[in-house]
Design brief:
mainly alpha, Arc Repressor Mutant, subunit A, Four Helix Bundle (Hemerythrin (Met), subunit A), 2 domains, 3-stranded antiparallel sheet, DNA-binding, DNA binding, TF_FadR/GntR_C
Length: 222
C-alpha cells in the first residue's frame, strides 16, 4: 500500500474510533447494546476494516466487549467494578493533584479560581448539568496542569468506563452540596501550591465518591 494511502487509512480508523467512543460516552449507545459492524459502517460512512479496528481499540479501552458468537457490544460496568476503578483513580488523581500544585502557573490559578466560582454558582442555581460539566473540567484541568502523561492516559481510560455511573451520581439528590466543598478544597490547595494538601483533598473527594456510588445503587434498588 502506498504511504499516502496508508496514512489516509490510518487516519480514517482513528477518526472512526473517536466518533464511536464519543457516542458511547455521550450515551448514544446503551450498556449491552450490540455494535453491529454493518450498521456502524453505514452510520459513520466508514470501511469495514476501519470499524473493526475501532472496535478492537475500544475493547482494549474497556468500553466495548466481544461475546463469543454474538459479536461486540457496549460493556456494562457493575457497581463493584465502578468502586474499584474509583479507588484506582483515588491514587492516580491524588498524584496528579500534588504535581499540579507544584507546577500551577499564575494564569492557571486564575482559571481554577473562575472554575471554583462556576461550581459554586451552579450549586446555588440547582444547575446539575452545569455543575457536572464544571466538575469534569476541573478533574481534566488538574490532570493537564500536572503534566503527568502516563497518569492522564490511565485516567482517561478509566473515565470512559465510569461515565454512566458518574452521571447517575451527579443526578442524586443532595450530591452537589456534598461534593462542592470537596472540589473547593482541591482548588484551594492547588492554588496555594500545597502538594500534600492537594493530594489529600483529591483522595478525600474520591473516597466520598466511592461511598456515594454505593448509596445511589442502594437507593435505586430500594
Amino acid at each position: 500500500m502506498p504511504v499516502k494511502e496508508a496514512r489516509e487509512h490510518s487516519t480514517d480508523q482513528a477518526a472512526v474510533t473517536d466518533l464511536i467512543r464519543k457516542a458511547i460516552l455521550d450515551g448514544d449507545f446503551a450498556p449491552n447494546q450490540r455494535m453491529v459492524e454493518a450498521d456502524l459502517c453505514a452510520q459513520y460512512d466508514a470501511s469495514r476494516s476501519a470499524v473493526r479496528a475501532a472496535l478492537h481499540e475500544l475493547t482494549a479501552q474497556g468500553l466495548v466487549e466481544r461475546i463469543q458468537n454474538r459479536g461486540a457490544r457496549v460493556r456494562s460496568v457493575s457497581l463493584d467494578e465502578a468502586v474499584e476503578i474509583t479507588e484506582v483513580r483515588m491514587v492516580v488523581e491524588g498524584l496528579c493533584a500534588a504535581k499540579a500544585a507544584q507546577k500551577v502557573t499564575d494564569a492557571e490559578i486564575e482559571e481554577l479560581t473562575a472554575l471554583r466560582e462556576e461550581l459554586t454558582t451552579s450549586v446555588a442555581a440547582g444547575d446539575v448539568f452545569g455543575y457536572s460539566r464544571a466538575n469534569q473540567l476541573l478533574h481534566k484541568r488538574v490532570r493537564e496542569i500536572s503534566a503527568q502523561r502516563s497518569a492522564d492516559e490511565i485516567l482517561e481510560r478509566l473515565r470512559g468506563q465510569l461515565v454512566r455511573h458518574q452521571f447517575k451520581l451527579s443526578m442524586h439528590p443532595g450530591r452537589m452540596s456534598v461534593s462542592l466543598p470537596e472540589h473547593v478544597a482541591i482548588i484551594d490547595a492547588v492554588c496555594a501550591r500545597d502538594p500534600e494538601r492537594a493530594e489529600a483533598a483529591m483522595r478525600q473527594h474520591l473516597a466520598s465518591v466511592t461511598a456515594a456510588l454505593a448509596d445511589v445503587a442502594e437507593a435505586r434498588q430500594g
